[in-house]
Design a protein that fits this description.
Layout lengths: L2 H12 L2 H9 L14 H7 L3 H9 L13 H7 L3 H9 L14 H7 L3 H7 L4
Helix pairs in contact: 1-2, 1-3, 2-4, 3-4, 4-6, 5-6, 5-7
């Protein structure tokens, strides 16, 4: 087990930005995964940890990596994380990626009736 990665993942989930910063500075791989568990980026997105998402993106987290067919952008849309969606788009996230069902982030937003994400969509174009 990679304890440094697990610590990064847990700190990202809980929103402990100072710990995340320290781990990044110490050289922990922001894209590391252990036993196919969600990445630190996905944990931060799922739990609405916008500051941590920003830190991970700045440190080189892979914003295109799909986990079980779901990209970070799709997860942010699904959970209604509008600020995170904006961060990902600004960082160059591919809005055309599709999940295993062939749905893009736009389709996910419309089928989940996530109006806050849809309202901000026009600023992405």
């Amino acid at each position: 087990m990679n304890f440094a990665y697990e610590l990064l993942r847990s700190a990202s989930e809980k929103g402990y930005a100072e710990i995340v910063t320290s781990l990044i500075t110490a050289g922990v791989d922001v894209n590391g995964r252990y036993r196919n568990r969600d990445s630190a980026l996905m944990m931060a997105i799922r739990n609405g940890r916008t500051e941590v998402v920003s830190l991970l993106i700045e440190a080189g987290a892979n914003i295109h990596l799909q986990e079980n067919g779901v990209s970070p952008l799709m997860m942010a849309v699904r959970w209604g994380r509008t600020e995170v969606v904006s961060l990902l788009i600004e960082a160059g996230a591919n809005i055309d990626l599709q999940n295993e069902e062939g749905d893009s982030a736009v389709i996910i937003a419309t089928t989940k009736y996530n109006l806050s994400v849809l309202r901000s969509w026009s600023s992405w174009s």
